[in-house]
Amino acid sequence: MKRELLDILCCPVCKGNLELRVSKEKDGNILEGELVCNKCRVSYEIKEGIPNLLPK
């Protein structure tokens, strides 16, 4: 996932802004980590560079 993608993503639950927490990055691509909503605090996993924005 590219950091620039954060500019167009929002929380699918409440439409709040997402905060990026990176666990693994390579060549400017986020490979592992999570996106956390600043409003409702729901977190979304990033695995193999793909953010999973499906609510649990």
Can you describe this structure?
- By secondary structure, the chain is mainly beta.
- The protein has one domain (3-51): Single Sheet (N-terminal domain of TfIIb).
- The protein is 0% helix and 45% strand.
- The chain contains no helices and four strands.
- Strands 1-2-3-4 form a four-stranded antiparallel beta sheet, with no helix packed on it.
- Strand 1 and strand 2 form a beta hairpin.
- The two termini are 21 Å apart.
Question: Which key terms come to mind for this protein?
Answer:
56 residues; mainly beta; N-terminal domain of TfIIb; four-stranded antiparallel beta sheet
The portion of residues assigned to helices is under 10%
Task: Label the structural class.
Answer: mainly beta
Sheet with the most strands: spatial strand order: 1-2-3-4
- Provide mean pLDDT, rounded: 96
Question: What's the total count of β strands?
Answer: 4
Largest sheet: 4 strands, antiparallel
Q: How widely separated are the two ends?
A: 21 Å
What is the count of distinct domains?
1
User: What CATH architecture would you give?
Assistant: Single Sheet
The Rg value, from CA coordinates, equals 10 Å
